[in-house]
What we know:
By secondary structure, chain A is mainly β. Chain A contains no helices and 12 strands. In chain B, strands 2, 4, 5, 6, 9, 10 and 11 form a 7-stranded mixed sheet that branches.
Amino acid sequence: AQKITQTQPGMFVQEKEAVTLDCTYDTSDQSYGLFWYKQPSSGEMIFLIYQGSYDEQNATEGRYSLNFQKARKSANLVISASQLGDSAMYFCAMSAVQGAQKLVFGQGTRLTINP
Amino acid sequence: NAGVTQTPKFRILKIGQSMTLQCTQDMNHNYMYWYRQDPGMGLKLIYYSVGAGITDKGEVPNGYNVSRSTTEDFPLRLELAAPSQTSVYFCASVAQGDTEAFFGQGTRLTVV
């Protein structure tokens, strides 16, 4: 079984600062994928970034990067130069690479960017 | 390209009523999913499908049914609605071999 743990219910950051959102995971799969999704107050789910378990380099997408530490089973999201529009819920998720790619989500972290 | 479309966006049901949440995607994705999101929580998988005619249970399937008669459509049926089914329901699809899931806008369901 897979499990995602996000231990920060809420984070408050000043605009333009960098922020790290924590995510740890547990799985018995050898090949798996790790995801981060953003959910703004409007409710939609927005895909941010993906990291495969066998990828040697940390994934980056614009201001988002995923700090992947396989031995520690962590997949933290780093947002550089935060903006007011980054205020949202952020969910870490994982799936097995083989098969139907069913996502298992953490409970989320509510990020608030202060001006 | 519409992506994943869910209808309705909002619905209030009385206890014991039934309804079908509609989901359609125009990206020719093989994999489709239904998730529910309870207040303050992450999403949980209800049912999924890897192709037309094939469906399987997820983590929280009780009280729901699905069908997949075409690649495009994946309706979710609630029979005998209960207050515990008050939630936001998301439909999603993924192309086989791809990683990014595309989500619908969600259906907010309240059972009273």
